[in-house]
Design goal:
- The chain is α+β, with helices and mostly antiparallel strands and 251 residues long.
- The protein folds into two domains: 2-79, OB fold (Dihydrolipoamide Acetyltransferase, E2P) (Beta Barrel); 89-149 and 187-247, de novo design (two linked rop proteins) (Up-down Bundle).
- The protein is 32% helix and 24% strand.
- The strands form two sheets. It has a five-stranded mixed barrel. A three-stranded antiparallel sheet has the order 7-6-8.
- The protein is elongated, with a radius of gyration of 20 Å.
- The mean pLDDT is 92.
Length: 251
């Protein structure tokens, strides 16, 4: 066993005993980590009430070499996730960020850029930034960082460039846009407005141009539906927080 230090976002906590928790964390240095925090529920101790959901903290843990849980020995709070307004949309969005990080990443598979994106997203939500844009940025950025971003410019089957006008075919099982020639015989193919695909491109890019993009409610609704179905396909199930995404329509 070796002691490791990391910066972590708390994704999930489960009661283990009267005083202890099993904690799932997404760390910048090691990726997803699951550990036992003995005495974490006590007011005084080595965790200083730092293990609130979506809190960012510095942790020390003993990494086990077997399949057993790691042992979390210390956590020092850096930032809590606190919203500035009374709306629940930002809270639902934060929970969705945690769910995607927990479900789409693997133990000990670090993605520092994804950690930074998640931290930036939670800070933006807490500050009251526009929820729908912040969430789209996180989802598409996460898909990019994890290698799941759908093909948005060329046909996912033959790589032929797609002209972004009118309605575009999008293969949910095929990983992106499809040309008319490759459409035949495909299942679960959606037809979306070309503007939806262009918005997805901009939000997935590594630059900050997404901040200047504006879209109407119709485009957002179509984009939200497409992205929801794509994420469901990747996970093999419907995320629990999808039931609340209808609330995420503004800041």
């Amino acid at each position: 066993m070796s002691a490791e230090k990391a910066t972590a976002i708390v994704l999930k906590t489960v009661d283990f005993s009267e005083s202890s928790l099993v904690v799932t964390l997404f760390t910048r240095e090691f990726g997803k980590v699951r550990g036992l925090a003995k005495g974490a529920k006590r007011l005084k101790g080595p965790f200083e009430s730092a293990l609130d959901l979506l809190a960012c903290c510095r942790i020390v843990f003993l990494r086990k070499t077997s399949d057993a849980l790691d042992l979390l020995t210390e956590a020092k709070l850096q930032r809590r996730f606190r919203l500035t307004g009374p709306e629940l949309g930002g809270l639902y969005a934060g929970y969705y960020v945690a769910e995607l990080l927990a479900e789409m990443t693997h133990d000990y598979d670090p993605h520092p850029e994804l950690f930074d994106l998640a931290e930036e997203t939670l800070a933006g939500l807490a500050a009251g930034e526009q929820i729908d844009k912040r969430l789209l940025r996180f989802e598409l950025g996460a898909l990019r960082e994890l290698g799941h971003l759908p093909s948005l410019e060329g046909c996912a089957e033959c790589a032929k460039p797609i002209e972004m006008t009118g309605r575009i075919l999008f293969g949910l099982l095929d990983g992106g846009v499809l040309c008319r020639d490759c459409r035949q015989g495909k299942r679960q193919v959606a037809s979306v407005n070309a503007g939806v695909v262009r918005v997805m491109e901009r939000f997935a890019a590594a630059d900050e141009a997404w901040r200047r993009i504006e879209f109407d409610a119709k485009t957002h609704g179509e984009l939200r539906g497409l992205l929801n179905h794509f994420v469901c396909h990747l996970l093999g199930r419907k995320p629990r927080m999808h039931a609340y995404l209808s609330h995420l329509t503004g800041g």
